[in-house]
Amino acid sequence: MKRLLLTLATVIVGVVLVAGSVVALGKGQSEPAMISATVVGTASTPQGDLPHATLEMSIYPQEGPGNPAPNVGASSKVAAEQWPFYSPSTSIQLPANTLITVTIHQYDSMSPLYNDFFARVHGTVDGTATYDGEGLTEIDNAAVAHTFTIHQYPEATQPDLFVSVPMLGVANNAPNEANGYPKPIDITFSFVTGDPGEYIWNCEDPCGSGYVAFGGPMSERGFMSGTVTVV
Ligand SMILES: [Cu+2]
């Protein structure tokens, strides 16, 4: 009986500790505001004529004057000031059954990938992305700064959506311009959404801190990962 009570008490203490940590860790965090792709017209695609929407984002190497780090309750505000981040938000909403053209102004330097798979372009309409106007199906593994990778939840039964585009890094010695950042590389790619669904996206490049560089901005919301809601 004594043993049973002791076991029960241990289990209860465990449950309280886990629940307490979840509440405490979740409290400071807030979801970034949603950004939406804007419908600009129609476009012919391999799936026929579809609405065409555009979305513009930037990737900064760290916060700068007048460009603060995401205000999402990072575990360390001081550390977060040095973290790379997607801007203006990592919460993305896209219209369903639409051609989406994403333009990303990429200001960060290179950090080589662990896996060549993510140096290749996947899931775009013609299998390419353009880098300052040049269409490519892949870039050099060592020249990747980040990736923009949309994928499913593992148990999902919703329409398949997988898009992964490597973000080319600026040269590590590129001089800064007046805004405190080097001249960005403009990366553009297009893909077609299906019916509504909830997806996630993240960077697959070891651009963070801590263990194998997948901590810091890579493990906290609002910097290198977020949601894609197709509506
Ligand atoms: Cu990254």
Structure explained in plain terms:
The protein is mostly beta strands. It has one domain (31-230). It is 13% helix and 34% strand. Strands 2, 3, 4, 6, 7, 8 and 11 form a seven-stranded mixed β-sheet that branches. The chain has a six-stranded mixed β-sheet with strand order 1-5-13-12-9-10, with no helix packed on it. A hairpin with a 2-residue loop joins strand 7 and strand 8 (134-136). The radius of gyration is 20 Å and the shape is globular. The structure holds copper (II) ion.
List the helices and strands and how they pair.
Blueprint: H1 2-27, E1 34-36, E2 38-45, E3 48-60, H2 77-80, E4 85-87, E5 91-94, E6 99-106, E7 129-131, E8 134-136, E9 144-151, E10 163-168, E11 185-192, E12 197-202, E13 225-230
Estimate nothing, just give the exact number of structural domains: 1
Low-confidence stretches: none
What's the rounded overall pLDDT mean? 92
The percent of residues in helical segments reads: 10-25%
Tell me the total number of β-strands: 13
Classify the secondary structure makeup into a structural class.
mainly beta
Counted by DSSP, the helix tally is 2
* Strand residue content: 25-35%
Shape: globular
Major sheet details: 7 strands, mixed
Q: Say which molecules are bound, naming each kind only once.
A: copper (II) ion
Radius of gyration (Å): 20 Å
Features:
six-stranded mixed beta sheet, mainly beta, single chain, 231 residues, binds copper (II) ion, 13 strands
